[in-house]
Design brief:
The chain is 16% helix and 31% strand. The chain is of the alpha+beta class and 70 residues long. The chain has one domain. The strands form 2 sheets. A 4-stranded antiparallel β-sheet has the order 3-4-5-6. It has a two-stranded antiparallel sheet with strand order 1-2. It starts with a helix and ends with a strand. 11% of the residues are buried.
C-alpha cells in the first residue's frame, strides 16, 4: 500500500480530536520508521513527528495533526 493511501486514513472525530494510526497498523502495511523527532532527544514526545518508508519506496511523515506524503 502506498503512503498516499495511508495519508487519507487520518480523520477528526465529531469532537474535533485528531487520531493517528498506531505503529502496528503502519508496520502491518510494510512500513518502517526511518526517522523520528524523538531520536536522541532527552524529552520524549507522545506524538512525535515520524517518517515512515514503505516497500514501494513511498514515504509518509506523520505529525501531531498532519500526515504528508513525501
Amino acid at each position: 500500500m502506498s503512503a498516499a493511501k495511508i495519508a487519507h486514513a487520518y480523520a477528526y472525530d465529531e469532537d474535533g480530536r485528531y487520531y493517528r494510526p498506531r505503529d502496528a497498523v503502519l508496520e502491518g502495511m510494510g512500513g518502517r520508521i526511518v526517522a523520528s523527532s524523538n531520536d536522541g532527544e532527552r524529552d520524549v514526545s507522545f506524538s512525535p513527528t515520524d517518517t515512515w518508508e514503505f516497500p514501494d519506496g513511498s514515504r509518509l511523515e506523520v505529525a501531531y495533526s498532519d500526515a504528508t506524503v513525501l
